[in-house]
Amino acid sequence: MISGDIDRLAAEHVMGLLEGGEASTAEKLMGQDTEFTARVEYWRGRFGAFDESAPRIAPSDALWARIEADIARVPQPAARALAPATPSWFAGLWENLGFWRSAGFAGAAAALVLAFGLNASLREQAKKPVMIAVLMTDANRAAAVVNVSADGTAELVPLDDIAVPAGRALQVWTLWDRARGPVSIGLVSRAQRMPLQLGSLPKTGINQLFEISLEPEGGSAIGRPTGPVLMKGTASTAL
Amino acid sequence: MLAATMTRPDTGIAAALRRCAGGDRAALRSIYDSEAPAMIGVAMRILRRRELAEEAVQDAFVRIYQYAASFDPSRGEAKTWIYAILRHRALNILRGEARTDYVEDFEKMDVASEDESPEAAVSRLSDEKSLKKCLETLEPVRRNAVVLAFVSGLTHGEVAGRLGVPLGTVKAWIRRSLVSLRECMG
What we know:
Oligomer: heterodimer
Number of helices of chain B: 11
Number of strands of chain B: 0
Shape of chain B: globular
Radius of gyration of chain A: 22 Å
Structural class of chain A: alpha+beta
Number of domains of chain A: 2
Radius of gyration of chain B: 18 Å
Distance between the termini of chain A: 42 Å
Strand content of chain A: 15-25%
CATH architecture of the largest domain in chain B: Orthogonal Bundle
Number of domains of chain B: 2
Largest interface: A-B, 57 and 73 residues
Largest sheet of chain A: 8 strands, antiparallel
Number of helices of chain A: 6
């Protein structure tokens, strides 16, 4: 990365403008890359003039008591890096074809074999899937499979345990029409086999995207992914 | 008070953070006394609702206390560090929770504060600050794009909507403005 890029990334990180892959890159660089960390400090210092001149608003009387009550409950951990300073907010990623194309599918072939094996052993009696999507994590690991049967029903089969924090849920999405955007087809509190709600959607097509994002317990309030995308993949025809 | 806060040496907060790391709540209170009003102001610009702004400040102080030991004075200023924590919390609340409230909860919308204009935010900047001088060299609409993104916490898409220009234009404006600002501020 050339130094102008580092500076731009640092500035947009400080402004809270980064999304998707760039946001995670910035989080990884922060504290580990000396130049990036220094550029972030530069921009925080310069833009800090806005914070210094913000209108002063007296806190309500109860605020300090609430803070004290909170700190009485939480332990102070030993020194360690602070959590990433940019929210990994998912927005516009569905629009970004480059992001999807660059997502690693190198492991997909191996994962397909695994998925078929899983199907054969676990679902001897089940309907034969006609379409399969292998959902890959950022680390290029197959984490779940979506099976779509000939009769249009679909099922999610997790391959990997997924850590879901308390109060959060996994939401499954598909994108069959870019104009309409992602459609929620399932919500679950932990990684488990589950039927997906494809009923109201047209027949699943080749390369149709499926993904799982981390959302509040009751699901995204805005009808599209808001949390980090944990895994994604596109549908292929099952042989 | 404004002048006092701005000229207060950063070492005060850094020293208080060291005491916080040792479990000294009075040290946290001293940071609260000097910074909470400005922090609520910063959070209000992003969240526009008092209860959400106080929630962001509350979360920020809990984290400041919790992670005080991880503050490294060799890497940056203490004040910058606490405001980075605050902004992170405020943006998370904005993008995770508050956004839909604005659309769906009209009653609550009534108590949202009036938007401060980007021009007003720039005019509040101290004349001493290179940021002010350098922002003023930018074309006004580009300057507004930068200010709306930082001060109000808007995304590229929201800035585009607000200014009525295409998303790609806003991204390019902000990127070029950042290059100009860097050259100007040194």
